[in-house]
Amino acid sequence: xxxxPMVKTVFKATPHLAILGTSLFWMYLxxxxxxxxxxxxxxxxxxxxxxSKEDAKRLGACYNDLKNNITNMLRRQVAGNFExx
Amino acid sequence: xxxxxxxxxxxxxxxxxEILSVVSSEVPALIKSILASVFSEEAGRSMGKAAAxxxxxxxxxxxxxxxxxxxxxxYMRTFTSIGDMLRSGGMGRHGERHGEDIGxxxxxxxxxxxxxxxxxxxxxxxxxxxxxxE
Lengths: 85, 134
Known about the structure:
The structure holds 2 protein chains of 2 kinds.
Chain A: H1 3-48, H2 53-84
Helix pairs in contact in A: 1-2
Chain B: H1 2-10, H2 13-38, H3 41-60, H4 65-90, H5 92-133
Helix pairs in contact in B: 3-4
């Protein structure tokens, strides 16, 4: 590909890449909040069925584990892609 | 020739713009819906209902409190293993390499066992021959 079409391509691609990057970053930022909400709702259900609060919290920790697993996986994928390129 | 022309057409700025416009709208929506299916208030509530029903059944069945909690914890671990599943699915190449390592390890062990057995058999045969001579 010669220089001019390449510049044109980059110029035309920039807004879309910016939108993609922004929305992914926003998702990453709001993930913690989503996890907290899900975890609270989960623990409430367990407590309402007669489980102690400590046990419910211990079980609710699996939401954080899952979040950490997913974010670590994504981080590794991104780092791997950078290394390959 | 025809393939090259097609490739050139695909790499045109207009086409790339089209592809990126679709990707930038579809990919975030897809990821958002996947995350919402696990990390949302509704999903948390329904998961909590399932775990609570499991716990309640165990307790009603006469299971001690600590055992019931431990079993519910194990039940919830299947939920966190979704992350492991995703990880293994996302890293197919590493998984393949890991599979090759396991294959090599198995081959090595099998050879070691075979050598041991062959050595044992030859020792026995020698002992038998010596006894016959005596």
